[in-house]
Q: What sequence folds into this?
């Protein structure tokens, strides 16, 4: 029994070390890196960072070296090497790196998951609903075992095999989902898949909202989509996301505006209008409240960080 535990720990350590070497080849400098595998991105930081509001999409985040904190409402997750964070819905969080240096950078990866594929894999595993006494958690954290770390390592390895990536990556992604469903994450993950669960209705409404956030939307309309009364909808929505529907909508809009300005060089006024704001001044005020600086100053700072200037 003791030998089995030692062997599993040794295998997990070896998989984590392999991941570190692969990530260092992809991320030679600080930054965010897309890969040949569309669902996979790599992230490196060479210094601790300030808290940054962002959206965690449905998927698995893994810390390989260094450490970071993730805040969801009043809950704080300390994410260390070998630990995974599983987001069961698209979730606004505040994230920041707490341990990183030039010599020992923070290295992490994100694997985005497809909700329909999760349901398909769950059906194939004959996994039923989560027990009713298990509460819903939009973000869960656990140490990844050697099997899951090894599977993640094989997915990252495909970045060196472009001829295989397109056909093999979906198979490995299914294996990752299967291992997650059978891990301690599984019951919480499956809580979202109970068709009569309030959290499932909220998640479906969030998916709709992600596609329509630029439109003028009332709480009553969202509650109708979730098949709930407005008061019940507000209650369940906050239980899932830690935010009111209005604050969640604002974060979706402001995050999208930030990406438009940063990646497509859209000016601040146009970005605000494009994501659904009717007043440019209101957009600037709410942007500064969320990100700590007015739009132009924030984007200028982000570009300076990206280029390594200053």
A:
């Amino acid at each position: 029994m003791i030998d089995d535990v030692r062997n599993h720990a040794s295998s997990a350590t070896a998989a984590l070390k392999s991941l570190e070497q692969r990530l260092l080849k992809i991320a030679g400098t600080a930054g965010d890196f897309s890969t040949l595998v569309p669902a996979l991105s790599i992230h490196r930081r060479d210094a601790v960072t300030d808290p940054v509001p962002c959206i965690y999409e449905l998927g698995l985040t893994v810390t390989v070296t260094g450490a970071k904190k993730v805040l969801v409402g009043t809950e704080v997750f300390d994410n260390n090497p070998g630990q995974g964070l599983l987001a069961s819905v698209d979730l606004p969080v505040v994230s920041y790196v707490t341990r990183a240096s030039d010599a020992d950078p923070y290295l992490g990866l994100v694997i985005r998951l497809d909700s329909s594929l999760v349901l398909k894999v769950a059906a194939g595993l004959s996994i039923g609903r989560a027990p009713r006494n298990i509460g819903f958690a939009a973000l869960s954290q656990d140490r990844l075992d050697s099997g899951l770390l090894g599977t993640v390592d094989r997915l990252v390895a495909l970045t060196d095999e472009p001829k295989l990536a397109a056909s093999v990556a979906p198979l490995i992604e299914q294996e990752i989902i299967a291992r997650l469903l059978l891990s301690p994450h599984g019951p919480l993950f499956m809580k979202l898949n109970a068709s009569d669960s309030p959290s499932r209705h909220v998640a479906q409404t969030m998916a709709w909202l992600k596609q329509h956030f630029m439109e003028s939307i009332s709480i009553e309309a969202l509650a109708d989509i979730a098949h709930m009364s407005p008061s019940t909808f507000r209650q369940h929505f906050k239980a899932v996301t830690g935010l009111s529907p209005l604050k969640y909508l604002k974060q979706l809009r402001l995050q999208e505006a930030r990406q438009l300005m940063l990646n497509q060089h859209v000016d601040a006024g146009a970005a605000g209008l494009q994501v659904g704001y009717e007043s440019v001044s209101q957009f600037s005020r709410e942007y500064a409240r969320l990100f700590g600086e007015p739009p132009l100053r924030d984007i200028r700072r982000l570009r300076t960080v990206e280029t390594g200037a200053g």
Observations:
- The chain has a mean pLDDT of 88.
